[in-house]
Amino acid sequence: MSRSLKQVAVLLVALLCLDPHSRVSSAPICTHGPSGCHVPSLADLFDRVIQHSARMHSVSNDLHSEFEQYFLPSKNHIGKIYRKCHTSNILTPNGKENAQKLAREELTEVILKLLMAWRDPLFQLHQSMADQQDFNSFSSNKALEMGDMAHELRKGVEKVAEKMRVLGMLGNSVTGLSAAEAMLPLSESGEAMSDYELLYCFRRDSNKVQNYLKILKCRIVPEHDC
Amino acid sequence: MRNSGAVLILTFIAKLILQAAGVSPPGKPRLTSCRSPEKETFTCWWEPGGDGGLPTTYALYYHLENSETVYECPDYRTAGENSCYFNKNDTSLWVNYNITVVASNALGKNISDPVEVDVVYIVQPNTPENVKAVVVHDEQGPFVRVSWEKPRTADTRSGWITLIYQIRVKQEKDEKWEEYDAGMQKYYNVFSLHPDKECMVQVRCKPDHGFWSEWTQTTYVKMPNYIPRERSLWILITIFSIFIVLILTWTLNVKRNSMKLCLLPPVPGPKIKGFDKQLLKSGKTEDIFNTLVIQGFPPTTDYENLLVEYLEVYDNEEQELVLEGKELSEDFMKSKSSSDNDSGRGSCDSRTLLLEKCMDGREGSGSDQHQYSQHGETSWASTESSESQGAEPGSPESTDGRAKTWPVVFPQPHHHYPVGAVKPAYHSVPEILNQLSPHATPSNYHQLHHQDIPQQELRFSKSACRHSQSYNQFNLDGIDTPAPGVPPLPSLEYVEVQRVNPENMLLLRPLSDPNREPERSDCTGEDYSKVKVVTSHNILLLQRDTSHQCVDDYSQADQCTTQQPPHPCKPAVHQWNSVMPQEGMRVMGNGYVDSTVLMPSF
């Protein structure tokens, strides 16, 4: 219902905005700038994206602690060995200086790579959680939600990158991400990672994404909240 | 072989000796916590497990996840005793550190349990700095504005850390702190603080994923003394309402009487003629009832058949005589029937008051003769009895010892009342119920305006009171008995119409008059007569009860014309022994005399 209303509203806005004399082209709707409709600024876009990543991270955090609480012994248990996350191949700055040394484009690329790398594993995670009897539907729904959020976040960051490119902040060194690798979460030994390991790795990676986005934002639009 | 055995024995002995001396290898140390203040460095602390009596050294070793290289702690000093400080170069985020502590002394060493640490999740910032609390005066009241700065070490500017703040406030003598979340801003306004109290403020912060910092040192601020605006408003409202209440009270006080009339309509006074209310209040019941008793009255069975009603005549503004029928109530003590028109009026205002009540200054020179009848009831209007009394019910100005005259109102002082003539203001005429037929009788008779009001009391209209003056001007010329020579009668007494003199005046004389004809003496029980018929010659025919043996005089208005008669009329006494047949009289359905036809045209 709301969607149809939105469409109607968009159409109305289009009627207002469209110049009847202009040629038909695939121009964006709000060609006439702020008078016609509200264009979110880069800062707004960044804020939205950062909020989204924060939400995603908190969901992953919840799932991970749920896992730890019910299914695994204490954290400091001797012999707990973590296998490498499948995203460890992606070079990510592991400190503030390292992150600040990176160029914007690289930072953006890292973010996008990370998000891309998690598209399939999250889907896998949801599947395996749904299959198992141990998890209630709430947890498996959270996993599904996580997957959706990662997907949306990726789209959002792509939009931000696009906007930055339009504004000239970003050089063209950002490689096309359509060729991003869809990695399979295989450990070195070739075995699929367990759910817990996936959760562990995803929690960490979502934290990375959030952090990198914040750095990027304060570097590009440092007006507020920085 | 021998050497190893000797060595073994020696070490065993040495151990025993050492144990006896109280020394042992160190106890197991334990890592208590690791914290990072800004997500760039971190520190780990451990507690020793017991040194075993010998000087023990501690060493911290760690290795990163998925790496076998073991490193030792780079800095044991910066963070103090039993700590290890990792600087920026040694800190890697998003990497697990596997840390152990080894305690060693001369006798041995002991290794703690390993701890996995990811620096990103152990961030606990320093406390906020430079907390200031200032009182700000606002039109709605003063409040406290608390401001602070971020901890120096946290780098929020580059977005590396995001801090959220929390403040807590306590006023003196409060037990609990009030906590408020300030989000990411560095100031907060605290409202709803009590005036004239000291206020304590503390602030702390937390990264988005991490631990809360410690609370800052307390900052003190004193709230000024002020009256809250709300309270002053309430004070104003209170004063205003008090003022209004006072005004209302004063108004009520002024209008006390009318309020009383409105809220508590006065109970109509007893309409019992001659009934003394005062006596009722104060006297004994015997006295009360004695006053209602007339000597010799009532004759017990004589009046059972009589149905006499009062005809009440009163004068309204248009000089019309209004006659209202009135039936005597059964119970003279009680108020009358439901359609009592007296309700709501004070006794003095009551229109049903008998005229006697309103008379004062009257020269009662005769006693009236009222004829009453009952509907077979024993009780009857106590007006007679009240006549013999002094006070009148409800009439403060009742006169004592005055004979009541016929309640005739004279419009002018010297206007004599002609029998049957016109222009008496009103009078009441007892009416014989069943037997009278007051048809169109001559105009000489009382101008009785009949109102067909059965079941109602005969009432004396209010206007009677006004005319009481003229009422009194009852010229009793030529009358034997009345006039000043009349001995002062008891207040109310019956009079009987003795005769009608030539000037068309009813001459009355009290029933208890000693001058009465002796032939009446044996009929002293007869105190009243009733009008039986009004003949066409302006004659009021009064009737005695048929069963009565006495043959009494019947007072009657003699045949006197309206014109001034040249000679006084002689009363003609008619004796009636029997009830007059119905002819000549027209009795209204309920026994009222229709006196409308008697109204003279003025």
UniProtKB/TrEMBL annotation, chain A:
It comes from the Eukaryota. InterPro entries: 4_helix_cytokine-like_core, Somatotropin/Prolactin, Somatotropin_CS. Residues 1-26 form the signal peptide. It holds the Pfam family Hormone_1. Keywords: Disulfide bond, Hormone, Secreted, Signal. GO terms for biological process: positive regulation of receptor signaling pathway via JAK-STAT; response to nutrient levels. It is found in: Secreted. GO terms for cellular component: extracellular space. The keyword Repeat does not apply. The keyword Nucleotidyltransferase does not apply. Coiled coil: none annotated. GO terms for molecular function: hormone activity. PROSITE patterns: SOMATOTROPIN_1, SOMATOTROPIN_2. Belongs to the somatotropin/prolactin family. This is Prolactin 2. It comes from Carassius auratus (Goldfish). The lineage of its organism: Eukaryota, Metazoa, Chordata, Craniata, Vertebrata.
TrEMBL record, chain B:
Residues 1-22 form the signal peptide. PROSITE patterns: FN3 (PS50853), HEMATOPO_REC_L_F1 (PS01352). GO terms for molecular function: cytokine binding; cytokine receptor activity; metal ion binding. It is found in: Membrane. It comes from the Eukaryota. InterPro entries: FN3_dom (IPR003961), FN3_sf (IPR036116), Growth/epo_recpt_lig-bind (IPR015152), Ig-like_fold (IPR013783), Long_hematopoietin_rcpt_CS (IPR003528), Type-I_Cytokine_Rcpt (IPR050379). It is a single-pass type I membrane protein. Residues 366-376 have a biased composition (Polar residues). SMART domains: FN3. Its main location: membrane. Residues 377-388 have a biased composition (Low complexity). Pfam families: EpoR_lig-bind (PF09067). The chain crosses the membrane at residues 233-252. This is a receptor for the anterior pituitary hormone prolactin. The box 1 motif is required for JAK interaction and/or activation. This is Prolactin receptor.
